[in-house]
Amino acid sequence: PTQPSGAGGAADANSGLPPGWIWQQDPATQQVFYVNTMNGHVQWEPPAPVAAAPVPAPAPALFA
Predict the structure, then answer these.
(1) C-alpha span between 57 and 64 (Å, rounded)
(2) What is the Cα–Cα distance from 34 to 46, expressed in whole angstroms?
(3) Which of 2, 4, 28, 61 satisfies CB 3.0 to 4.6 Å to 13 for a cystine?
(4) DSSP letter string over 21-51?
(5) How far apart are CA 62 and CA 14, in angstroms?
(6) Is the pLDDT assigned to residue 50 strictly greater than 50?
(7) C-alpha angle 16-19-25 in degrees, rounded to nearest 5
(8) Edge-to-edge strand order for the sheet containing 21-25?
(9) What's the CA gap between 43 and 7, in Å, rounded?
C-alpha cells in the first residue's frame, strides 16, 4: 500500500479503511500492517472495504 507522508498522513490513510481499522508501520521492516482496534486482530493485508448498505426501494403509493 502507499504509505502516507507529511503531518496528518496517518489520519488520511486511515480514513480509507473500514471503521475500527488503523494502519501501523513495523519499525523493524518498515512494512505497513493493519490493526482492528475493536477486536485486536492484526494482519499484513489491507482489510476488505465495507460495502455500502443498499438503498431501500420506496414504499408503494397507496391509492384511495
Answers:
(1) 21
(2) 6
(3) 4
(4) EEEEE-TTT--EEEEETTT--EESSPPPPPP
(5) 46
(6) yes
(7) 60
(8) 21-25, 32-36, 42-43
(9) 25
Q: Which residues pair with 43 in a beta bridge?
A: 34
What is the chain's mean pLDDT, rounded?
80
Q: Has this prediction a pTM greater than 0.90?
A: no
Average pLDDT, stretch 34-56? 89
- Supply the pLDDT for residue 2: 46
Rounded CA separation 20/56 (Å): 26
Distance, in Å, from the CA atom of 41 to the CA atom of 33, rounded to the nearest integer, reads 11
Question: d(Cα 18, Cα 39) in Å, to the nearest integer?
Answer: 13
